[in-house]
Amino acid sequence: MARLRLLHALLFQISILVIKIDAVPSSLLNSDYQQIQDHCFGNEIDPDRTAFHFQPSKNWLNDPNGPMYYKGLYHLFYQYNPVGPLWGNITWGHSVSTDLVNWEALDLALDRTDPFDINGCWSGSVTFVAGEPVILYTGIDDKQRNVQNIAFPKNGSDPLLREWVKPSDYNPIMVPGGDIDPDNFRDPSTGWFGQDGYWRTAVGANMKGRAEILLYKSQDFANWTRNEFPLHESLSSGMWECPDFFPVSLSSRDGLDPSVNTGNIKHVLKFGLMKTLRDYYLVGTYDEKKDVFIPDEGYEDDYRTWPVLDYGHIYASKSFFDGKKKRRILWSWVNESDSEADDIKKGWSGIQTFPRAIWLDTNGKQLIQWPIEEIKSLRKQQVQLRDFELQSGARHEITGISTSQANVDVEFELPSLEGAELFDDSFLLDPSKLCDEITPSDKGGIGPFGLLVLASDVEGLEEHTGIFFKVYKNSDKYMVLMCSHLRSSSRREGVYKPTFGAFVGVDISKDKRISLRTLIDHSVVENFAAGGRTCMTLRVYPKHVLTGQTSGLYVFNLGSLDVNIKELNAWEMARARVNIRNDEFISKDSV
Ligand code: DQQ
Fold it and tell me: Above 70 in pLDDT, residue 39?
């Protein structure tokens, strides 16, 4: 994880050359925090702590691991440091839920106890084998190698799956052979079962500089042999972590069991690129005979051309098939981007995105991600705008609800596309650079228009985070750019404040509308544009909340053309019950 911090530190250094950051004496910050800590018991006062996102009650969290639905309960495991708020001592934390919104913490599922995982229980998955959940995970062994291990429930009739056994006569089940870099061989995917009676799993590996998703096969799920060919490989993009490989329907939003390989389907290979710390995915076909994945036409071995799962701040995502509601659900790790010193003061670090249902767009090319329907159970007061004209230069505050814990759904309508600025193709591979050049004084053609969230009330919105769109014309086509600027998001010291950008895959000339759904939860802002076609998750650490001030929400339009808000609905959100231990709840309500 040092590399994450290093990258952030580097990007932060670069950003201060470009953006003037107000200097805040660190003694003041310390006393701000002290004030909070003095009054802080549990979740109530820590202003950065989220209200409806998954996080442990304290300490470090990273990747989501092995999500599943079993005997009436959803289970989520996660990479967890049980003794501190920074990465290290990695084990599997474990929580259960009946509704994917409220979570109860259980004891560690996997701890570093054996020679094959004594230096860490890293990421992995759960597969149902003969109806019972089985964990595959990466252990860092006594020789500091990445090896793959297996664990079974001690008592499958316990819906809580409290105890797991790691048989030493099985483990490790895969070791890095001669051509595999023992430092980079990890994160076994959920298994799938082939027509030939063999199980498969995909493992990320670095093979002398080449990224390979290795494929292993087994008849009994215990003895595994590496396939002659990798499932997929890339010569140019470095190590691929946390592979997820699953079928998606071309004719329905329903999720599919990982072993389905017939019917009107495609396959998705999702992975995290260590080089960019972003998650990408490829859509294509799985040839079960050769056991290879073939990306669809147009694929190039250049990560800059691959769809990014979320253009903001997420990594190491993991999905599972929810047999209860026949859908595929995905979580992603959202790392902190405040300073390490602040994480130590807070005593926690890392959250998961709100669970997202994912399916393939009708165009067969793009994944759609959308907060699961259970989120509605958290909605409180609602405010609404309808057919509201946002004139050029306008900024309008949404009042009537508290907006630091909110769900906003807005649909912008463009009366015309006349006057869209011309697009320069050189920006195609680097939309965030284009976003970076958009400033409030830039009276563009169509846009920027969008939302300002977590804005300070006083001193002329000194702190605010913009999520906005701008429409460009590229020969006979229109392009919608989505941006988020974090440069004014926080006056706290040591916060990483990048600009994120992406092109939204919609044909704006057809319906002249673009929607944005935003989940605001104290220090995280998840954005879903165009019905979930483009996602952008942000970490935001406003300073104004440290002194008890509330945050504001605005719609704005800085383009020279007026924009209409067809409809805006905003709900204040309730606090979910997330990982507060209460054994009574577990025994009475969950089972
Ligand atoms: N995190 C885990 C690894 C994985 C990485 C270690 C991705 O298994 O490759 O905590 O964030």
Answer: no
Across all residues in the chain, what is the average pLDDT? 90
Which residues are 293's β-sheet partners? 286
Whether 224 and 318 share a structural domain: yes
Q: Ligand 1: which of 61, 122, 270 to mutate, judged by most atoms within 8 Å of the beta carbon?
A: 122
Domain count, the chain: 3
Atom of ligand 1 nearest to the CA of 187: 8
Residues 305 and 380 in one domain: no
294 and 424 together in one domain: no
Residue among 441, 501, 498, 509 nearest 473 (CA): 509
Q: Which of 336, 371, 406 is the last residue of a domain?
A: 371
pLDDT tens-digit series, residues 246-260: 999 999 999 999 999
One domain, residues 322 and 435: no
Give distance in angstroms: CA of 189 to centre of ligand 1. Answer: 13
Q: Does the residue 589 lie in any domain?
A: no
**Residues 474, 340 share a domain:** no
Cα angle 388, 554, 511; round to 5: 45
DSSP assigned state of 406: E
Range of the domain at 557: 374-573
Interatomic CA distance for residues 204 and 276, integer angstroms: 16
The verdict on 264 and 401 lying in the same domain is: no
* Higher per-residue confidence, 460 vs 49: 49
Does residue 547 share a domain with residue 521? yes
pLDDT-derived band at 553, boundaries 50, 70, 90: very high
pLDDT tens for 346-396 read: 999 999 999 999 999 999 999 999 999 999 999 999 999 999 999 999 999
Q: Which of 4, 59, 62 to mutate to test the pocket of ligand 1 (most atoms within 8 A of CB)?
A: 62
521 vs 236, higher pLDDT:
521
Dist. CA 99–CA 96, nearest whole Å: 9
Q: What is the radius of gyration, based on Cα positions, of the chain?
A: 24
Q: SS3 for 479?
A: strand
Domain assignment present for residue 130? The answer is: yes
Q: What is the pLDDT of residue 458?
A: 65
The CATH code of the domain that includes 193 is 2.115.10.20
Q: How do residues 194-209 score in pLDDT, each as one tens digit?
A: 999 999 999 999 998 8
- CB burial class (10 A; 0-12, 13-18, 19+) of residue 557? buried
Q: Is the domain of 67 the same as that of 33?
A: no
Would the pTM of this model clear 0.85, i.e. be above it? yes
